[in-house]
């Protein structure tokens, strides 16, 4: 247990947030396109609250795109002065606690799995095996990144509502690891309700639960498997339906569906962000729009299929990769989504030694972090640069993320190979050789 | 992916590169530098052209009378008024003249709070005069500005009474004509740039801390372009065009072309940085001539200070430049004021044709002559090469640093990024059979991948933090120091100079402070290679970020610092250490400032060529430069001082610690 360090990190992180909220840094960061999207913008949420106070449906115009339940939650917090800031700091603290629990559960899960599969491993791969010691550093790394990492820090300070869906996803991870189908599906339903895309997490989660039921060589395409999948799907549907139903009752109309999910799917707002949609669709002729919207949205979901086939033994990695990939290709991504993906990266620290692009990727992240505001300034304020400059930097950001996630996948496959065949690769002629993944 | 996946090929490439990386680095730097400078050579740059066809330069017939009597009357009357009191500007007279012309004429008051309290205890009060000529064919949605600073007859700068006469004469002619589609605002600003700044702030209803404008009594639409006139009354030898704005921003190249084209049409000799074009194209002489012109421009742009009243318009996305009439000393061909009026009329008639804001043509360019330009696409590759020289150093330094070599027993490994340029092609380390690659390859101070074995990066973190803290100190020092000076009875510029020197020398000693703690135990000694890599990485980021904002500053910085920063190393030899420290001192922010002031002193017109004069002039220039840096920062929110404190100084301090470490 590396608890003291975790507590210290948590405390410092919380203090930092509270202190920074007192400066005018949040006001600046709240206008950053890289962090704030039309859906998650705090300014828009406040507009929504104001409209609701005037007894006007916030969804009537084209301004507010958050979900009805979140609006009510934030509104009640906003009644007290400083309440909203407290809420955001509180959410981050809860997320920190959940993260800590996730790492504990993950440690348990990995050790269990390792014990079970030890028989298949090569005797020469001892140095690759998990031990309690190697796993214990995960929790420190995760909390460190969560509390002091710039992305999650800025997401909290900018008060993007993404942190709520991020929290739901974290809960989903926790309950998945604990094997609690009902709560996991509830968390997933909340995440889906908030930002729609997490619906695709159903695939790895259903596979995970089936794997839990039948630990001995599960057959993923079988009657038993489908029974298990159906159960998860059913529980999830019930939860989601009740959330939507509650929203309908509160709102009194289905108007919010168009303003939230319709907004996510049809991408009408093309103001710049770190994603790939906005530039492409501003350049697009109108009559191709529908077609390419479909292509881009399918692109987000389609990766679940090959991953489900390739990584069927490892639903958690599958879940992680899908999560990362959604945060790259979703219609309104921001740093807040990246924050979630990076926080959980240390879970795979055992494969880091096989990663090849870490230096490039981390450089690119830093470069984007510095250049994006500058290019934005040059484009919007100085007007000497243009949209292409900013788009270039968002492309760099996307490439960095794609590099990273491809690297994680590669490193994992490579790690598995070494687990099964040992780290000392030799040809039949006893000559040393190296393994290449083609 | 052939190269990336074929490990043998890759290994060979890596080992070749790693053996020769020092040479390669030198080669890249030299090629980059030579290529950059060679861009002034005519075949390597392009000739200017009009991208915005709506300007139709010079296609309209001039409506000015062939004998422009009223202009001369205004000039004479103004001369008489100005002679009455040489220290004052006849503002009331000018105000009345505009009013008599039937224009909406207003006074605009503003207050300057002096940022350094002690020099002038009371706030300065200034007054701008401006007059709006309403366009007959539009609803005041767009406007053009003709500006000129109000300077008394006794001024040491260029006199501007000719400009005022031109304004009055043109205002009289303009209002007779029906074709104006944009309002024309005639702005006469007091205290040069400060008045312009106050007026623009009031016009756009923005606020700044030290210049406080009153509310504007009258206003027009969005300002499309501005021409600033600094024209003396008579004996104009040539017109010099000034373009460099605040923070190195430049006006659209089309506006510059327009001014040049119209001067040429009226047979007015036009120069850029007081240098006319070389008559002979494509020769060694002409290359030298253009190179010097280009360097003059870059020198002026690199300072980040506006070179005239036009410089502040750029902040509000208004294209602007200054036409400066230069008087000759002895007999020469004389351009009468009338010609300047015709040029200005032509420019405004062209601007009147604009259908949309300037958006075509270039905003990022360098000018080796009035009719040649070097665009961003041309100057970025050589600049990229220069930065790549440092990037190569990073990749192979990391190879040798302890971070990587910790437990490797065979096979070289490297992570190479070939670029602070955004597309980092990479050479990946390959699938090592022994799998000894270190976990913590992360280079940045971000904690994205902070996992374990952080020994490497953790050791240099305090150095980086301290250098940023020192940067913060240097940033706040002038403000704090000047609070104390009244009791010390020193002039503000002296206080600031000495204060900054003190902060700087304190900063110099920080490696000692760090090393004393580190000395007894072996584990805290810093791996200088890693430290250098971090420094080079920061330097690359700084240069890259600067290159898109102010290429000239980035270029001078890269050209001066990369040869030193790339090749310093930790050493035990005393001589070598001292030599390295000296080289580092030369490229330190203060060292560069001293060099810059010496260059400025030698560029002065009445420079005698004696060393004593150079040093004395250099000292004065340095004092003035630092002072102006701060004044620009406080009054106009220029970034140069901020960049020095938070980017250039911390980076340099990281390098400063390198030679103190033993290998």
From TrEMBL, chain A:
GO terms for biological process: attachment of GPI anchor to protein; GPI anchor biosynthetic process. Keywords: Endoplasmic reticulum, GPI-anchor biosynthesis, Membrane, Transmembrane, Transmembrane helix. InterPro entries: PIG-U (IPR009600). It is a multi-pass membrane protein. Pathway: Glycolipid biosynthesis; glycosylphosphatidylinositol-anchor biosynthesis. It is found in: Endoplasmic reticulum membrane. Belongs to the PIGU family. This is Phosphatidylinositol glycan anchor biosynthesis class U protein. It comes from Pomacea canaliculata.
Automatic annotation (TrEMBL), chain B:
Residues 416-442 are annotated as: Disordered. It comes from the Eukaryota. It is found in: Endoplasmic reticulum membrane. The keyword Acetylation does not apply. Keywords: Disulfide bond, Endoplasmic reticulum, Glycoprotein, Membrane, Transmembrane, Transmembrane helix. The keyword Transmembrane helix applies. InterPro entries: Gaa1. The chain crosses the membrane at residues 21-41, 455-475, 495-513, 534-558, 578-601, 634-658. Residues 419-430 have a biased composition (Polar residues). Heteropentamer. Part of the GPI-anchor transamidase complex, consisting of PIGK, PIGT, PIGS, PIGU and GAA1. Interacts with PIGK. Component of the glycosylphosphatidylinositol-anchor (GPI-anchor) transamidase (GPI-T) complex that catalyzes the formation of the linkage between a proprotein and a GPI-anchor and participates in GPI anchored protein biosynthesis. Binds GPI-anchor. This is GPI-anchor transamidase component GPAA1. It comes from Pomacea canaliculata (Golden apple snail).
């Amino acid at each position: 247990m590396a608890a003291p360090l975790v507590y210290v990190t948590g405390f410092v992180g919380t203090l930092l947030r509270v202190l920074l909220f007192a400066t005018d840094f949040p006001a600046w960061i709240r206008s950053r396109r890289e962090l704030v999207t039309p859906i998650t913008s705090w300014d828009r949420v406040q507009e929504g609250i104001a409209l609701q106070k005037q007894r006007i449906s916030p969804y009537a115009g084209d301004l507010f795109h958050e979900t009805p339940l979140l609006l009510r939650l934030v509104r009640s917090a906003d009644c007290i002065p400083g309440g909203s800031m407290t809420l955001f700091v509180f959410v981050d603290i809860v997320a920190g606690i959940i993260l800590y629990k996730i790492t504990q559960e993950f440690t348990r899960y990995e050790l269990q799995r390792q014990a079970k599969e030890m028989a298949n491993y090569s005797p020469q791969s001892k140095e690759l095996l998990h031990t309690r010691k190697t796993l214990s550093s995960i929790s420190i790394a995760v909390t460190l990144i969560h509390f002091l990492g710039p992305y999650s820090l800025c997401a909290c300070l900018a008060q993007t509502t993404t942190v709520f869906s991020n929290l739901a996803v974290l809960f989903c991870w926790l309950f998945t690891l604990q094997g609690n189908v009902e709560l996991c599906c509830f968390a997933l339903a909340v995440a889906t309700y908030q930002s729609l895309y997490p619906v695709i997490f159903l695939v790895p989660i259903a596979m995970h639960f089936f794997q839990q039921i039948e630990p001995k060589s599960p057959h993923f395409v079988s009657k038993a498997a489908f029974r298990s999948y159906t159960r998860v799907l059913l529980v999830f549907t019930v939860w989601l339906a009740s959330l939507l139903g509650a929203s309908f009752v509160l709102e009194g109309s289905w108007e919010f569906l168009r303003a939230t999910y319709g907004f996510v799917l049809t991408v009408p707002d093309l103001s710049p962000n770190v994603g790939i949609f906005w530039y492409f669709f501003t350049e697009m002729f109108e009559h191709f729009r529908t077609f390419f919207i479909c292509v881009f949205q399918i692109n987000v979901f389609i990766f679940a299929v090959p991953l489900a086939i390739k990584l069927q033994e490892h639903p958690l990695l599958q879940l992680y990769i899908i999560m990362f990939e959604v945060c790259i290709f979703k219609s309104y991504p921001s740093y807040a989504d990246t924050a979630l993906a990076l926080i959980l990266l240390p879970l795979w620290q055992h494969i880091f030694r096989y990663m090849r692009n870490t230096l490039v990727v981390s450089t690119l992240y830093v470069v984007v972090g510095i250049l994006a505001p500058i290019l934005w300034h040059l484009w919007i304020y100085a007007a000497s640069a243009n949209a292409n400059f900013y788009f270039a930097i968002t492309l760099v950001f996307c490439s960095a993320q794609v590099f990273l996630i491809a690297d994680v996948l590669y490193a994992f496959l490579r790690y598995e190979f070494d687990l099964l065949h040992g780290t000392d690769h030799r040809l039949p002629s006893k000559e040393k050789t190296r393994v290449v993944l083609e | 992916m052939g190269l990336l996946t074929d490990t043998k090929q890759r290994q060979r490439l890596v080992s070749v590169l790693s053996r020769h990386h020092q040479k390669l680095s030198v080669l890249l730097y030299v090629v980059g530098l030579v290529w950059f400078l060679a861009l002034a050579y005519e075949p390597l740059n392009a000739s200017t052209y009009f991208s915005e066809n709506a300007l139709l330069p010079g296609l309209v017939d001039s409506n000015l009378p062939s004998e422009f009597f009223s202009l001369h009357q205004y000039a004479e009357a103004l001369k008489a008024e100005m002679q009455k009191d040489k220290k004052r500007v006849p503002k009331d007279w000018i105000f009345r003249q505009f009013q008599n012309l039937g224009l909406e004429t207003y006074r605009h008051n503003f207050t300057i709070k002096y940022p350094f309290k002690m020099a002038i205890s009371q706030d300065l009060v200034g007054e701008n005069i401006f007059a709006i000529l309403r366009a007959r064919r539009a609803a005041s949605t767009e406007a053009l500005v003709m500006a000129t600073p109000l300077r008394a007859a006794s001024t040491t700068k260029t006199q501007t009474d000719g400009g005022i006469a031109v304004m009055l004469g043109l205002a009289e002619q303009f209002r007779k004509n029906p074709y104006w589609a944009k309002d024309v605002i005639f702005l006469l600003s007091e205290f040069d740039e400060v008045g312009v700044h106050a007026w623009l702030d009031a016009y756009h209803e923005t606020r700044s801390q030290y210049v406080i404008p009153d509310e504007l009594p009258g206003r027009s639409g969005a300002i499309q372009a501005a021409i600033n006139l600094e024209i003396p009354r008579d004996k104009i030898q040539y017109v010099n065009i000034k373009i460099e704005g605040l923070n190195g921003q430049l006006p659209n190249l089309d506006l510059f072309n327009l001014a040049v084209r119209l001067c040429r049409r009226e047979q007015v000799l036009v120069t850029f940085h007081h240098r006319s074009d070389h008559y002979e194209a494509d020769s060694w002489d002409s290359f030298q001539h253009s190179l010097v012109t280009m360097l003059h421009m870059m020198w002026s742009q690199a300072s980040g200070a506006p070179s005239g009243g036009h410089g502040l318009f750029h902040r509000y996305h208004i294209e602007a430049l200054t036409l400066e009439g230069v008087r000759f000393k002895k007999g020469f061909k004389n351009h009468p004021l009338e010609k300047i009026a015709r040029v200005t009329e032509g420019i405004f008639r062209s601007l009147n044709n604009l259908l949309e804001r300037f958006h075509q043509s270039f905003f990022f360019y360098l000018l080796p002559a009035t009719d040649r330009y070097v665009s961003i696409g041309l100057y970025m590759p050589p600049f990229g090469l220069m930065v790549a020289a440092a990037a190569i150093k990073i990749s192979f330094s990391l190879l040798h640093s302890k971070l990587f070599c910790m437990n490797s027993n065979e096979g070289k490994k490297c992570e190479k990024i070939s670029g602070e340029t955004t597309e980092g092609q990479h050479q990946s380390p390959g699938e090592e059979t022994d799998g000894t690659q270190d976990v913590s390859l992360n280079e940045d101070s971000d904690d994205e991948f902070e996992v374990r074995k952080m020994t490497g990066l953790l050791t240099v973190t305090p150095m980086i933090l301290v250098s940023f803290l020192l940067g913060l100190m240097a940033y706040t020092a002038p403000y704090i120091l000047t609070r104390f000076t009244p009791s010390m009875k020193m002039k503000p510029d002296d206080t600031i100079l000495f204060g900054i020197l003190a902060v700087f020398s304190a900063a110099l000693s920080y490696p000692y402070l760090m090393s004393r703690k580190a000395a007894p135990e072996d584990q805290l000694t810093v791996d200088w290679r890693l430290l250098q890599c971090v420094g080079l990485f920061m330097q690359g980021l700084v240069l890259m970020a600067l290159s898109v904002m102010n290429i000239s500053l980035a270029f001078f910085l890269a050209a001066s610092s990369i040869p030193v920063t790339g090749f310093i190393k930790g050493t035990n030899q005393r001589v070598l250490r001292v030599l390295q420290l000296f080289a580092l001192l030369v490229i330190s922010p203060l060292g560069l400032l001293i060099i810059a002031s010496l260059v400025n002193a030698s560029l002065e017109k009445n420079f005698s060529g004696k060393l004593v004069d150079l040093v004395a002039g250099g000292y004065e220039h340095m004092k003035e430069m630092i002072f102006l840096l701060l004044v620009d920062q406080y009054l106009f929110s220029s970034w140069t001082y901020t960049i020095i404190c938070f980017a250039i100084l911390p980076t340099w301090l990281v390098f400063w610690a390198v030679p103190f470490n033993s290998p």
